[in-house]
Every structure is written in structure tokens, then in C-alpha cells.
Amino acid sequence: MTNLKNRKLVVGVGSALIDILAHENDEFLKKTEAIKGGMIYVPPERIEQILSQLSQKPAIVPGGSACNTIVGIAKLGGKARFVGKSGADDMADFFKESLEETHAEPVIFTSPSPTGRVLSVITPDAQRSMLTYLGAASEMSADEISENLFENAVIVHIEGYLLFNRELILAIANAAKNARAKISLDLASFNVVEASKDFLEEFVRKYADILIANEDEARVFTGFSDENKAIAALSEKAEIAVLKIGKRGSLISSSGQVIKVEPMGDGKAADTTGAGDLWASGFLFGLAQGYSLEMCGKLGSACGYEVCQVIGASIPEDGWQRIRQFLAAS
Questions:
Q1: Handedness of CA 49, 50, 53, 58 (dihedral sign)
Q2: How far is the CA of 162 from the CAs of 146, 169, 236, in angstroms?
Q3: Closest CA to 185 of 51, 12, 61
Q4: Is the CATH code 3.40.1190.20 the one for domain 2-15+64-110+137-329?
Q5: What is the SS3 assignment for 154?
Q6: By C-alpha distance, which of 134, 62, 137 is closest to 98?
Q7: What are the domain boundaries of the chain?
Q8: Scanning 36, 52, 170, 200, which has its CA 20 to 30 A from the CA of 185?
Q9: Could you say which DSSP state residue 313 is in?
Q10: In angstroms, how far is the first alpha carbon of the chain from the final one?
Q11: pTM for the complete prediction?
């Protein structure tokens, strides 16, 4: 990425969503018909119905995969911008103000539709199962995307959920390439990969410079459960390939070399919400700063660990202080 060494900006594009986080048991989860560890789309009435049945008050925070990643980059001191679409309502104001507080730059298109939301049911094993109403987030269109959104960006990070809107994701990718930015794609969820596999193969081949997947996503995409075969297959598709292997850390492949990054901490988690998103924060921040791939992976691991110690996708300030101390000592 040396050809872009004077650029530091990372732009994330994705769904502007409000996260609603609820702790419930597996029996409750079965009643919601959610896919454990996955994501399904539901009408807003279904979310309201489930909310009325919760055993305790949920937490409400700004969210969306790419947004979580961009907020993390901003908290690390990076230059970060988020592009998405919201309603013109109180939730939209909350979303935008929350980004500005982290020093991330929000570029938010607006719609008459309600701001989107995600109900994440968190079970005792720390798995989060998501029920999503995209609302205004689903209305971002290709004709709203222009090259100037990505001017001076070193990386444009696209969440895999946008694979469901092919015209939009192609417009983003073409505009990013025209702005000479590298394109990072997070595969988002195994069921997203299942639903868009043929198009995904073509998209990755043509556009992706950085490909980020967890074990389930990589298995569906490559056909391999074995991590060594999976990272080898991913590495054939992108300049930099990442395979996150949960409590065992991550594998990063580039230029024929595979780097094993050990996990941080003891592997225990209070909640895995945002773990992959914040891992990407550390990794992409490191790339934008010109760190080695190993250091990028370690920083990703530190961010992923800290977010798993709390409920939701927001690392508290004491967690960020530990991350900054780790960075300073490295």
C-alpha cells in the first residue's frame, strides 16, 4: 500500500443503524426465530413485538458493521468517515451526534423512512443473533455515490451486507477505485455469503484488495473448514486476506506469506457483538498508518478482545486506554 502512503483517511460505507442489545436465554431466542450467530431481516413490527417480551430493559447504541469499524478507527486517533443513510428522526440525530463525539466524520443521506435498527439477542454463550429492520439504511442508492466521498482515502471499507444491493455496492467500488483507494470487504455473516456467493466471487475478484472473513464465512465462501486450506483459498482472491479464528486468534496472508496472530487475553467474552467490526478497526487503522501486517493483526486482536469484555460494540474509555498503551509499547 506504499503508493498511498501519504493518505490516512479510512472511509466506511454501510447501514446506519441503531443497535438494541438484549440479554436473553436460548429458549427465548428460539421463540424469536432468529438464526443463532447470524442475521435475518424482519419488519419493524416484529422487533417491537420481541421488545415487549424482553425480561429486562435493552441497551440502545449506534451501530451497523462499517459504522462500528469507523468509530473504532476514530477512537484510535485515525482519520475516519462514515457514509450511510438514515431517517429524519430522533434516532438519526442520536446516530450522527454519537459519531461526531468520537471525531468520526458522518456523511449521512436522509430519507422519509424511519432510521434502521437491529435487535441483537445475546445468549449466555456470548453469541449474538440479529433481527434487522434496515429502514432508511436500505434506501441508499447508487446515484448518491460519487468519487468525492472517497477523495484522499487510503482504504474504503465496505460491509458485506451491501452485497444484497448489487447496484449500490458496484457504484461504491467503482467510485473508490476511481479515487485510487484500496477496497476492504468484510464478509459480514455466513448467511450473507450463502445468499450472494456467485456475485460475491465476481465482486471479490474484480474489486477487493483486502478480504476479511471469520471461520463460518470462509467455510461457505471457500468450501474449506480447515483453516489452513481456507486462508490459502482466501489469499488467492485478494492482496491481503484475513481469517479470524475466534479464541485462537487470526491468520493474515499476503504475498504468499501467512502470519499467525495470537489472541489477546484469556478468550473469555461477555458479548461478541462488534468483535469482528472492532477487530477490523485495529487492523485497518494499522494499515492506514503503515504498520506491519503482524502489528495490524495484533492491534485488531486487542480491539476485538476489549469489545468482547463489555455489552455492545462500544469499547469504554478504560479499554481504549489499554489499547493505546499496548500500541505505545509495541
A1: negative
A2: 16, 6, 23
A3: 12
A4: yes
A5: strand
A6: 62
A7: 2-15+64-110+137-329
A8: 36
A9: S
A10: 21
A11: 0.89
